[in-house]
């Protein structure tokens, strides 16, 4: 068997092996996101987070009614006329930075801020919902 024949067989195998290793490496890099990546929550994710943070059914339901009407559980909801932002429509949205630097994209941070706001202003989410029903805002 000649050396040139062996080189012709080995070269394509080496190229394929190199390509496979490179593809596997890229695939691993693409599938492993850092743990600190900013979460972008869907409406279902945001509701799940809220349910964990608000175990009392009456308080959760009141909070949920408000968020459904204010933002439709959209973490990025923005009121075009007022500029209110997020799940609970904070005005200005940057107020939520007091609950976390990731306030623009993290449902948990927005929920935490919203709960604190409702508790300080209305005593609870139920109090906020009662006010919302009477006034159409909170």
UniProtKB/TrEMBL annotation:
Taxonomic placement: Bacteria, Bacillati, Actinomycetota, Actinomycetes, Kitasatosporales
UniProt xrefs under InterPro entries: Lysozyme-like_dom_sf (IPR023346), Transglycosylase_SLT_dom_1 (IPR008258)
Keyword annotations: Signal
Annotated signal peptide: 1-37
Superkingdom as given in the UniProt entry: Bacteria
Protein name according to UniProt: Transglycosylase SLT domain-containing protein
Keyword Signal among record annotations: yes
Domain Transglycosylase SLT: residue ranges: 63-130
